[in-house]
Specification:
The protein has about 200 residues and is mostly helical. It is built from seven helices and two strands.
Length: about 200
Protein backbone atom coordinates (compact mmCIF):
# COMPACT_ATOMS: atom_id res chain seq x y z
CA UNK A 1 0.00 0.00 0.00
CA UNK A 2 1.36 3.41 -0.96
CA UNK A 3 1.92 6.10 1.67
CA UNK A 4 -0.80 8.16 -0.05
CA UNK A 5 -3.30 5.30 0.13
CA UNK A 6 -2.42 4.60 3.78
CA UNK A 7 -2.82 8.24 4.78
CA UNK A 8 -6.14 8.48 2.96
CA UNK A 9 -7.43 5.32 4.65
CA UNK A 10 -6.31 6.55 8.08
CA UNK A 11 -7.91 9.94 7.45
CA UNK A 12 -11.17 8.32 6.40
CA UNK A 13 -11.24 6.12 9.51
CA UNK A 14 -10.78 9.17 11.76
CA UNK A 15 -13.51 11.04 9.91
CA UNK A 16 -15.87 8.08 10.27
CA UNK A 17 -15.31 8.06 14.04
CA UNK A 18 -16.02 11.79 14.28
CA UNK A 19 -19.16 11.63 12.15
CA UNK A 20 -20.47 8.71 14.19
CA UNK A 21 -19.87 10.82 17.33
CA UNK A 22 -21.86 13.67 15.81
CA UNK A 23 -24.65 11.31 14.76
CA UNK A 24 -24.95 9.95 18.31
CA UNK A 25 -24.71 13.19 20.28
CA UNK A 26 -25.98 15.99 18.05
CA UNK A 27 -29.40 15.63 19.64
CA UNK A 28 -27.96 16.55 23.06
CA UNK A 29 -26.05 19.51 21.58
CA UNK A 30 -29.16 20.91 19.89
CA UNK A 31 -31.34 20.40 22.95
CA UNK A 32 -28.80 22.24 25.10
CA UNK A 33 -28.53 25.01 22.49
CA UNK A 34 -32.28 25.55 22.67
CA UNK A 35 -32.23 25.63 26.49
CA UNK A 36 -29.07 27.66 27.12
CA UNK A 37 -28.17 29.41 23.85
CA UNK A 38 -24.81 27.64 23.46
CA UNK A 39 -24.18 26.90 19.76
CA UNK A 40 -24.48 23.20 18.95
CA UNK A 41 -21.35 23.56 16.82
CA UNK A 42 -19.33 24.75 19.81
CA UNK A 43 -20.59 21.99 22.09
CA UNK A 44 -19.96 19.23 19.54
CA UNK A 45 -16.61 20.72 18.52
CA UNK A 46 -15.48 20.79 22.13
CA UNK A 47 -16.75 17.26 22.69
CA UNK A 48 -14.78 16.02 19.68
CA UNK A 49 -11.60 17.74 20.89
CA UNK A 50 -11.85 17.08 24.61
CA UNK A 51 -12.93 13.42 24.39
CA UNK A 52 -11.23 12.42 21.12
CA UNK A 53 -14.72 11.76 19.75
CA UNK A 54 -15.61 9.69 22.79
CA UNK A 55 -12.54 7.45 22.44
CA UNK A 56 -10.25 8.90 25.14
CA UNK A 57 -9.64 6.85 28.27
CA UNK A 58 -11.07 9.65 30.43
CA UNK A 59 -14.32 9.93 28.50
CA UNK A 60 -14.77 6.15 28.48
CA UNK A 61 -14.21 5.90 32.23
CA UNK A 62 -16.31 8.90 33.24
CA UNK A 63 -18.67 9.92 30.40
CA UNK A 64 -16.93 13.29 30.79
CA UNK A 65 -16.76 14.59 27.20
CA UNK A 66 -15.61 18.14 28.00
CA UNK A 67 -12.61 17.64 30.25
CA UNK A 68 -14.37 19.36 33.14
CA UNK A 69 -12.44 19.10 36.39
CA UNK A 70 -14.09 18.74 39.78
CA UNK A 71 -13.74 22.28 41.08
CA UNK A 72 -14.56 23.24 44.65
CA UNK A 73 -18.37 23.11 44.24
CA UNK A 74 -18.71 19.68 42.64
CA UNK A 75 -20.51 17.14 44.84
CA UNK A 76 -20.95 14.32 42.32
CA UNK A 77 -18.77 11.32 41.53
CA UNK A 78 -15.11 11.92 40.78
CA UNK A 79 -12.28 10.25 38.87
CA UNK A 80 -8.55 10.91 39.17
CA UNK A 81 -6.64 11.16 35.91
CA UNK A 82 -3.21 12.45 34.86
CA UNK A 83 -3.62 15.69 32.89
CA UNK A 84 -1.63 18.93 33.25
CA UNK A 85 -0.49 17.48 36.57
CA UNK A 86 -0.73 13.89 37.88
CA UNK A 87 -3.95 12.60 39.45
CA UNK A 88 -6.20 15.57 38.71
CA UNK A 89 -9.81 15.35 39.84
CA UNK A 90 -12.39 15.11 37.04
CA UNK A 91 -16.16 14.98 37.19
CA UNK A 92 -17.76 11.60 36.53
CA UNK A 93 -21.24 11.26 35.06
CA UNK A 94 -23.83 8.52 34.77
CA UNK A 95 -24.33 9.25 31.06
CA UNK A 96 -22.98 11.30 28.17
CA UNK A 97 -26.23 13.26 28.14
CA UNK A 98 -25.54 14.29 31.74
CA UNK A 99 -22.07 15.48 30.66
CA UNK A 100 -23.54 17.61 27.86
CA UNK A 101 -25.99 19.19 30.30
CA UNK A 102 -23.36 19.85 32.96
CA UNK A 103 -21.18 21.53 30.33
CA UNK A 104 -24.03 24.01 29.76
CA UNK A 105 -24.28 24.70 33.48
CA UNK A 106 -20.48 24.99 33.73
CA UNK A 107 -20.53 27.80 31.17
CA UNK A 108 -22.98 29.76 33.34
CA UNK A 109 -20.06 30.80 35.56
CA UNK A 110 -19.34 34.56 35.61
CA UNK A 111 -16.01 34.19 33.79
CA UNK A 112 -17.89 32.90 30.73
CA UNK A 113 -20.60 35.59 30.81
CA UNK A 114 -19.26 37.38 27.70
CA UNK A 115 -20.05 34.31 25.64
CA UNK A 116 -23.76 34.97 25.97
CA UNK A 117 -23.41 38.47 24.54
CA UNK A 118 -22.25 36.92 21.26
CA UNK A 119 -24.46 35.84 18.39
CA UNK A 120 -25.40 32.17 18.56
CA UNK A 121 -24.29 31.61 14.97
CA UNK A 122 -20.87 33.25 15.42
CA UNK A 123 -18.89 30.13 16.29
CA UNK A 124 -15.57 31.86 15.64
CA UNK A 125 -16.28 34.50 18.29
CA UNK A 126 -17.45 31.82 20.72
CA UNK A 127 -14.29 29.78 20.20
CA UNK A 128 -12.08 32.84 20.70
CA UNK A 129 -13.90 33.93 23.86
CA UNK A 130 -13.78 30.41 25.32
CA UNK A 131 -10.02 30.50 25.02
CA UNK A 132 -9.82 34.04 26.46
CA UNK A 133 -11.95 32.97 29.43
CA UNK A 134 -9.49 30.18 30.17
CA UNK A 135 -11.47 27.08 29.23
CA UNK A 136 -8.34 25.26 27.99
CA UNK A 137 -4.59 25.60 28.46
CA UNK A 138 -3.73 25.02 24.79
CA UNK A 139 -2.61 28.27 23.18
CA UNK A 140 -4.12 27.09 19.90
CA UNK A 141 -7.47 26.00 21.38
CA UNK A 142 -9.65 28.49 19.50
CA UNK A 143 -8.13 27.55 16.14
CA UNK A 144 -8.40 23.83 16.88
CA UNK A 145 -12.06 24.25 17.77
CA UNK A 146 -12.82 26.34 14.68
CA UNK A 147 -11.04 23.78 12.50
CA UNK A 148 -13.29 20.98 13.77
CA UNK A 149 -16.43 23.05 13.26
CA UNK A 150 -15.47 23.96 9.72
CA UNK A 151 -14.10 20.56 8.73
CA UNK A 152 -17.35 18.82 9.69
CA UNK A 153 -19.72 21.69 8.81
CA UNK A 154 -21.00 21.78 12.40
CA UNK A 155 -22.13 25.37 11.93
CA UNK A 156 -25.09 24.02 9.96
CA UNK A 157 -26.54 22.70 13.23
CA UNK A 158 -26.66 26.25 14.65
CA UNK A 159 -29.24 27.39 12.08
CA UNK A 160 -32.66 28.44 13.36
CA UNK A 161 -35.39 26.28 11.86
CA UNK A 162 -38.88 24.98 12.60
CA UNK A 163 -37.89 21.42 11.68
CA UNK A 164 -37.69 18.73 14.37
CA UNK A 165 -34.29 17.94 15.85
CA UNK A 166 -34.32 14.50 14.21
CA UNK A 167 -34.96 16.01 10.77
CA UNK A 168 -32.26 18.64 11.27
CA UNK A 169 -29.71 15.98 12.15
CA UNK A 170 -30.70 13.81 9.17
CA UNK A 171 -30.41 16.79 6.82
CA UNK A 172 -26.99 17.58 8.27
CA UNK A 173 -25.76 13.98 7.90
CA UNK A 174 -26.95 13.86 4.27
CA UNK A 175 -25.16 17.14 3.59
CA UNK A 176 -21.89 15.82 5.05
CA UNK A 177 -22.25 12.54 3.17
CA UNK A 178 -22.58 14.40 -0.14
CA UNK A 179 -19.66 16.67 0.70
CA UNK A 180 -17.46 13.66 1.45
CA UNK A 181 -18.42 12.08 -1.88
CA UNK A 182 -17.46 15.28 -3.69
CA UNK A 183 -14.15 15.38 -1.81
CA UNK A 184 -13.39 11.74 -2.69
CA UNK A 185 -13.99 12.29 -6.39
CA UNK A 186 -11.85 15.45 -6.38
CA UNK A 187 -8.97 13.56 -4.75
CA UNK A 188 -9.42 10.60 -7.11
CA UNK A 189 -9.46 12.82 -10.19
CA UNK A 190 -6.32 14.68 -9.05
CA UNK A 191 -4.50 11.40 -8.49
CA UNK A 192 -5.70 10.04 -11.84
CA UNK A 193 -4.52 13.16 -13.70
CA UNK A 194 -1.16 12.92 -11.94
CA UNK A 195 -0.72 9.26 -12.99
CA UNK A 196 -1.69 10.02 -16.59
CA UNK A 197 0.80 12.90 -16.66
CA UNK A 198 3.57 10.68 -15.30
CA UNK A 199 2.69 8.00 -17.85
CA UNK A 200 3.03 10.38 -20.79
CA UNK A 201 6.23 11.87 -19.37
CA UNK A 202 7.79 8.40 -19.18
CA UNK A 203 7.23 7.78 -22.90
Amino acid sequence: MSLFSFSQKNKKEIENVVIEYIRKYAVFAIEEMEKFGIPASIKLGQGILESSSGKSSLSKATNNHFGIKCGKNWVGDVYYHDDDIPKECFRKYNSVEESFHDHSKFLQQPRYSKLFLLKKDDYQAWATELKKAGYATSLNYANLLIDQIEKYYLWKLDKTTTFSIERRINQYLNYVKNKRKDSFFRIFSRKFRFLIKKLFQSK
